[in-house]
Amino acid sequence: MSICLVYFMVFLVFSMLSFFMSLNFMSMDYSTVVEIEMVSVNSSSIVMSLLFDWMSLLFASFVLFISSMVIFYSLEYMEGDLMINRFIMLVAMFVASMLLLIFSPNLISILLGWDGLGLVSYCLVIYYQNVKSFNAGMLTALTNRLGDVAFLMSIAWMLNFGSWNYLFFLDVMSRSTEMDIIVFLMVFAGMTKSAQIPFSSWLPAAMAAPTPVSSLVHSSTLVTAGVYLLIRFNFCMGEGVKIILLFVASLTMFMAGLGASYEYDLKKIIALSTLSQLGLMMSILAMGGYVLAFYHLLTHALFKALLFMCAGAMIHGLSNCQDIRFMGGLINQMPLTCVFFVICNMSLCGLPFLSGFYSKDLILEFISMSNLGVYIYLIYFVSTGLTVAYTFRLIYMVLSGDYNHFSFHSINDLGLVMLKGMSGIIFFVVFMGSALSWMMLSTPYFICLPFYMKMMTLIVTVTGGWVGYELAQLALGYKSKTLKFNLSSIFMGSMWNMPYISTFGVNYYPLHQGVAMYESLDQGWSEYAGSQNLYYSLSSLSKFLQVFHSNNLKIFLSLTVMWIVFLILMIY
To answer: Could you tell me which residue ranges the NADH-Ubiquinone oxidoreductase (complex I) chain 5 N-terminal domain spans (predicted)?
Structure first.
């Protein structure tokens, strides 16, 4: 209990300090690199570098603030857990790794933070110690290791520059072959950490972690690490890398929206929503709008953290049930939590004057102004419609209708500690979008669009809401389902069969093949032609020789008689 409050206070104080420092740095257009000498031997020294500018300080303040609220929320959510101190320490290590990654201009120290995130996330995903958690943890760790390999290769390529401080070479060496290779490897690493296609299946699997961890992971740490790293490297991205990233990220955004529209697990729907928003950030970054990507990263962090907290409160009250088909009518039992839940969902959809609106609407209008063709325009607006669709489906199935769970329940809004943790964020969910737009966008974007393109966002939002309502009606059985719907729901709900490729494909088939090989070789031909056959041959030979040794006198006399008979026959 005491360790939770200590971390809560420390993170909150440092969050406020970091925020006001970022405002100061932003107003002065100031940045500084602090070098701390760790070891010095003769003329060689090992130096720890830290980069302080408005971007790193602002992101760090958001990470620390959300972490402080999540730790406070965990006081009640993890109540009764005998290992709560270990849990809080793991969360603190997670935040420390993220901060190391944010403040480092050096690839070696970034790798420490990057690997720290991967390692601690594994420990947190397997926290509940069951088969599902172990499988999810292994999938998370191994997928992230692919990005670590790319990171190590980029560190090796940086040796060509004589230093690992990438900050010094972003402008000078931006068009060199070495920097092109490094940026390509960084994009690959960012795609694995931010779960872009084809590395997407670990993100929903990581929902096996406790809900406070999910809140932290999906808002401001781990999955956003890849986006933040690519924002830092955006000045060096060549056109080829940008086009690949744009295509992959836009497909990820579309795929996640479709998957969430067919999913029934509350936490997985919100996880797929995160995946969709990550695709949005990555694709707008690939189009050159790195400030917009960072802006959406910050606003998304706030409402996504609170969305997971609300989901955790619902799961907590429903005896750990996560299936939205067993919910319904929760607005009557837990009104305040449901109000928070609806505000966050509306912010996700881009309802005017909530924080999500300012970044999302600006991004969509930026897309409308670009000349990248009809594919990008359509996939962005269809994905936005899908976001509204799965959000309305979720709200309809969770909040309205009849209560579908046990009649002996303990669902209420009396969890004051959890409510206080959630109330700390709700103010920022409503107001922070406009505040950030005033702070970050010193020069306003000049958007000049025809009326029908200006109204397109509103049209897809309304259409998405209607589609979400129809999907909820289908899911609850108010409308008859067809075979076509069932088949499409299997394909869409499984993220375009991606888990079968990245999880079952690399898991099930090799294991199945291993069993077949074991039966046919280890216990089959290799037994017959190898050790078993050798044993049989040697034992038969030894038995034969044993007969000789046991009856050697008889055999000698018998052979003597046979020899004499043979001689007699030869003489005559």
So the answer is: 40-87
Q: Which of 197, 311, 302 is CA-nearest to residue 265?
A: 311
CA distance 180 to 242: 11
Alpha-carbon distance 381 to 364, whole Å?
Answer: 8
- Residues 429 and 551 reside in one and the same domain: no
Q: pTM for this structure?
A: 0.84
Alpha-carbon gap, residue 163 to 155, rounded angstroms:
10
The residue among 425, 418, 430 whose CA lies nearest residue 312 is 418
Here the tokens at position 540 are 């038969």
Q: Are residues 426 and 341 in the same domain?
A: yes
d(CA 344, CA 350): 10
Domain extent, residue 379, equals 238-495
pLDDT tens-digit readout, 489-543: 667 666 676 777 666 666 677 778 888 888 777 777 777 777 777 888 888 888 8
Q: Helices (DSSP H) in 159-238: which residue ranges?
A: 177-193, 202-205, 211-217, 223-232
Q: Is residue 42 in some structural domain?
A: no
CA atoms 395, 399, 400, 406: torsion sign: positive
| Residue the block writes with tokens 């060689």 | 44
**Quick check: bond before 510 cis, omega within 30?**
no
